Amino acid sequence: MSVLLIEAFYGGSHKQLMDLLQEELQEDCVLCTLPAKKWHWKARTAALYFMQTVPASTKYRILFASSVLNLAELAALRPDLGKLKKVLYFHENQLAYPVQKCQERDFQYGYNQILSWFMPEHKLAHLEKVIGAKRNEDGYQLEDLSGQQKSRALMKNSKAQCESGLCEAQPGLYTTQHEGLPSPLTAPARWNQSEASESTNPCQEEDKQHLTFNLSNILSGQDYQQRPLHVAWPHRWEHDKDPETFFKVLLKLKEKDLPFHVSVLGEAFTEIPDIFSEAKKALGSSVLHWGYLPSKDDYFQALCTADVVISTAKHEFFGVAMVEAVYCGCYPLCPKALVYPEIFPAEYLYSTPEQLFKRLQNFCKRPDIVRKHLYKGETAGFSWAALGGKFRSLLAAEPREDL
């Protein structure tokens, strides 16, 4: 129980990462979480909650948390935790997160992130030594997994932004995904992978939904090559994923009587943009599935039956769902912006909604194009097989006074 894992928003990619770490560490960790609801409230108050609920222990060496938690507040409220080596994982940048409905930005969330990872000069100097980075006026230049030099602003004192997945970690540790995903060449029709057992840790609190889904029943009887193009959108139902642009493109395809099916996956929260109910009605029989699939088996099955996976995101640090879909054999179409050009080759990127529409229009007319396509990018470096060892090394390090 030497590693303390804290997640204030235990859902989606946040949950996926913590579950992987817990599975990897097994008896050597304790996981404390809050359910994935009311994100803003968690960002403001999680430190107070965990101050009261995290068990005291003299065995803790390392505290690993996501940036939803105000780590500075927790360290102040729990001095025993403040003495630990701390690793903070950033799923997003709250200083650059898209503002909804032209409202004024609430800078509290970005300020929380600054407080959580800001390091004094002597620690920045130590970071340079540890990760082999060279400082310049924009930030740090790092060596990525392929050995090539890439400029990345890790620690900007002037703007106080964190563009990497991990602070105080090796470059390339952005996010993770489950082992055992299929090769694009051998995507199975049905999965036999068992679900990971739910933790019984008393720190954890989670609401559960019980839904079932089987896409193979919907598609039974249709020849694979003859059925319409199947488009997947596996993202959170929130404004930063820009569902408006996605549905606008699909409705334009429908207006032109182009055949396609769509599966709108991803999790919905308290406030769902109106466009979802409007689009579901307008798309009608084109919809194969609509809604969150809590079972990983069902979720991967849906991706395996899809031909194209689309992102219209306005803010993305990595994009686990897109990489998972590529593993399942989907042809990716992503904005030529954000993190996507670092991950996907140019042929999978689009610059405008019009370009996205034209690509889909061609695919609707010739779905065999994408079904025969072999993905030309590299995804092996993002697998847990590649990154697991780096996380193990990070969490095995002993705490020191200069960290």
Describe the structure.
It is a single chain. The protein has a six-stranded parallel beta sheet, sandwiched between helices. Strand 6 and strand 7 form a beta hairpin. The two termini are 20 Å apart. The longest helix has 15 residues, at 39-53. The chain is built from 15 helices and 14 strands. The protein folds into two domains: 3-176 and 383-396, no CATH class; 215-380, Glycogen Phosphorylase B (Rossmann fold, 3-Layer(aba) Sandwich). The chain has helices at residues 12-25, 39-53, 71-77, 79-82, 108-117, 121-131, 215-219, 243-255, 275-283, 296-305, 320-327, 340-343, 353-365, 368-371, 384-396, and strands spanning 3-10, 29-35, 62-66, 85-89, 134-135, 140-143, 149-152, 166-167, 229-234, 260-265, 287-290, 308-310, 331-335, 349-350. By secondary structure, the protein is of the alpha/beta class.
Distance from first to last alpha carbon: 20 Å
* Count of helical regions: 15
Count of β-strands? 14
N-to-C series of helices and strands: EHEHEHHEHHEEEEHEHEHEHEHEHEHHH
Contiguous low-pLDDT stretches (5 residues minimum) are: 137-221
Helix/strand class? alpha/beta
Biggest sheet layout? 6 strands, parallel
Helix percent reads 25-40%
How are the strands of the largest sheet arranged? 11-10-9-12-13-14
Question: Beta-strand level of the residues, as a percent range?
Answer: 15-25%
Number of domains: 2
Q: What form results from the Cα inertia axes?
A: elongated
Mean pLDDT level: 76
In oligomeric terms, what are we looking at? single chain
Rg calculated over all Cα atoms: 22 Å
